[in-house]
Design goal:
By secondary structure, this protein is an all-alpha fold. 79% of the residues lie in helices and 0% in strands. The chain is built from 20 helices and no strands. It has helices spanning 21-41, 46-53, 57-73, 75-85, 87-105, 111-140, 145-153, 155-186, 189-195, 204-209, 212-217, 234-250, 252-263, 268-293, 302-320, 326-389, 392-418, 425-439, 442-452, 460-480. α6 crosses α16. The relative contact order is 0.14.
């Protein structure tokens, strides 16, 4: 039976910041790539779908929107399943769903069938992979977490660089039906990535040496499958509101930039190259942002770095709306890739800092649910605006204004509502744990010496280590209080 990978782990187990964590990071890299790049890469098939089913831009845009809405809207369901069965089985089942959806979509006879198969089923499968991969990454990394998040987030642009031209080649050689079928087979790799998500277990020597009295004094509370207490945190509320506004416009430009170039008269292959350029820049922006976010002088103010990234993205959309030729779109994709990469690398790191490790599995599910409505409305609304005006300038302007507004909300909300709280208790707790580990928890060692003296000489060293862990838990509890 699986347990909650994040919350149910024994308190003595600390993030290894390496080891098997690098394999978990590799799996998260691939999963993040499929989850975020797939809704954008599938847009290369939109022209064929419009001709096949005689529909408009807004109708095809619903495919990407439903994919993203399922990725976001099923967040609480993923949280409950992960907390009940664990990350590994949930991810492997999700991989099967993701593949099955695309395979069924290849036999579609109407646009509604594609909504249900490629949108709902594949979207659910990607959701069951994406959220658990973030939870496991948060569990395996602490001090190196900003860098790990940046590296995992780089999977999105790498996959975009590969999937966009691959989709164009598949469409040219096999048509959209054959392309969907092959993409369905590729998505089976999610199952292999899920197999890498090995839960952290306490060392055997730690299990044997933890004093029984300490365990009796600290009874384990009953596990909550979904913790709604995060809504009492003002930082979480500000973050959720800002993120919901941001996703209204964040995903619009990548969905429509290929059609924008085609509308200017450029050939399909050259138009699809824009997504590759965007993804190539994004690929380097995410790890670089993770490195910057991990600096000691930056990490306590990481929310303002995220606000800057969102503002940068919004202004890029507004200026890019004036592009009239291919070179202008290339310049837009370069700057959009930089800002988009910064947002992608920082958004979940900020959430982890706000709520802490203990509540992250529930918090991310609830945040994704709140964002789902905005994700579902964003691209279709832009597509309807395009059908009405036949000008891409307006949808890029609208997207830029929405993202800029979200940057203002999170910056002002953090400054005005949270300025008296110099440090969130959960973040303070995590920093204290890291510092205590480095210092050896001297006070914990001294407090356990009397108990250790009664143990056998061979177990003395292991008992000292157990005392350190017990004192660490007590100190964290006092900080929370």
């Amino acid at each position: 039976m699986g347990g909650a990978v994040v919350d149910d782990s024994p308190p003595g187990v600390k993030a290894p910041d390496g080891g098997w964590g690098w394999a978990v990071l590799a799996g998260g890299f691939v999963i993040t790539g499929f989850s975020y790049a797939f809704p954008k890469a599938i847009s290369v098939f939109f022209k064929e779908l419009i001709r096949e089913f005689d529909v408009g831009y807004s109708d095809t845009a619903w495919i990407s929107s439903i994919l993203l809405a399922m990725l976001y809207g099923t967040g609480p369901v993923c949280s409950v399943l992960v907390n009940r069965f664990g990350c590994r089985p949930v991810m492997m089942v999700g991989g099967l769903f993701a593949s099955l959806g695309m395979i069924l979509a290849s036999f579609a006879t109407s646009i509604i069938h594609i909504y249900l198969c490629a949108g709902v089923i594949t979207g659910l499968g990607l959701a069951l992979n994406f959220q658990p991969s973030l939870i496991m990454l948060n569990r395996y990394f602490s001090e190196k977490r900003p860098l790990a998040n940046g590296l995992a987030a780089a999977g999105s642009p790498v996959a975009l660089c590969c999937l966009s031209p691959l989709g164009q080649v598949l469409q040219y050689n096999y048509g959209w039906r054959g392309g969907f079928l092959i993409l369905g087979g590729i998505l089976l790799n999610c199952c292999a990535c899920g197999a890498l998500m090995r839960p952290l277990l306490p060392p055997k020597k730690l299990e044997e040496s933890i004093p029984v009295a300490a365990e009796e004094k600290k009874p384990q509370p009953k596990k909550k499958l979904l913790d709604f207490s995060v809504f009492k945190d003002r930082g979480f509320l500000v973050y959720t509101i800002a993120a919901s506004i941001m996703v209204l416009g964040l995903f619009v430009p990548p969905v429509f930039v290929v059609s924008y170039a085609k509308g200017l008269g450029y050939e399909d292959t050259k138009s699809a190259l824009l997504l590759t350029i965007l993804g190539f820049v994004d690929m380097f922006a995410r790890p670089a942002s993770g490195l910057i976010a991990g600096l000691k002088c930056v990490r306590p103010r990481i929310v303002y770095l995220l606000s800057f990234a969102m503002l940068f993205n919004g202004i890029t959309d507004i200026i890019g709306s004036q592009a009239k030729d291919y070179p202008g779109l290339v310049v837009f994709c370069i700057f959009f890739g930089m800002s988009y990469g910064m947002v992608g690398a920082l958004q979940f790191e900020v959430l982890m800092n706000i709520v802490g490790t203990e509540k992250f599995s529930s918090a991310i599910g609830l945040v994704l649910l709140m964002e789902a409505i905005a994700v579902l409305l964003g691209p279709p609304a832009a597509g309807r605006l395009l059908d009405a005006t036949h000008q891409y300038m307006h949808i890029f302007l609208l997207a830029g204004c929405e993202v800029t507004l979200s940057a203002i909300v999170i910056a002002l909300g953090n400054f005005l509502c949270l300025r008296r709280r110099k440090e969130h208790p959960d973040a303070k707790m995590e920093m204290a744990v890291t510092a205590a580990e480095k210092e050896g928890l001297n006070c914990g060692v001294e407090g356990e010496e009397d108990h250790v003296a009664e143990e056998e000489p061979k177990k003395k060293a292991s008992a000292l280590e157990a005392g350190e862990e017990v004192m660490m838990v007590k100190e964290m509890g006092e900080n929370r209080a």
